[in-house]
């Protein structure tokens, strides 16, 4: 609602890969995001969502990625994360600033083999988001309050 009021486009998955258990060998299928049956869980975005997100990324100048698209540690549920990581690597090569924030996202781009193509990587996911929110980080505050010492 808030995004709509501000004229901001908010993209959410339209289809998801669901599983009957949280395991690499789980039964899986693709369903609309609004139709996840009881007892099943969404573990990745589906092909339509990958296409939509990739097309939206084509219009960006800066991307901040915090959090994988799915449970990329399980091959069956890694396509969304792998696809977006490769898309960001492609965009980096075209001059788009790509910032990867958070340990899981960093692990994902490393697993895909595109980490070195990103503009910036930070393992401090929560701290990165707080900095973007304009909050003062404790380490930065300590520097501001430091007393100069002559050695």
UniProtKB/TrEMBL annotation:
It comes from the Eukaryota. One of its GO terms (molecular function) is phosphoglycerate kinase activity. Its EC number is 2.7.2.3. Keywords: ATP-binding, Glycolysis, Kinase, Magnesium, Nucleotide-binding, Transferase. GO terms for cellular component: cytosol. Pathway: Carbohydrate degradation; glycolysis; pyruvate from D-glyceraldehyde 3-phosphate: step 2/5; Carbohydrate biosynthesis; Calvin cycle. The keyword Lyase does not apply. InterPro entries: Phosphoglycerate_kinase, Phosphoglycerate_kinase_N, Phosphoglycerate_kinase_sf. The keyword Nucleotide-binding applies. It holds the Pfam family PGK. GO terms for biological process: gluconeogenesis; glycolytic process. It catalyses: (2R)-3-phosphoglycerate + ATP = (2R)-3-phospho-glyceroyl phosphate + ADP. Its cofactor is Mg(2+). Belongs to the phosphoglycerate kinase family. Monomer. This is Phosphoglycerate kinase. It comes from Picea mariana. The lineage of its organism: Eukaryota, Viridiplantae, Streptophyta, Embryophyta, Tracheophyta. The gene is Sb56.
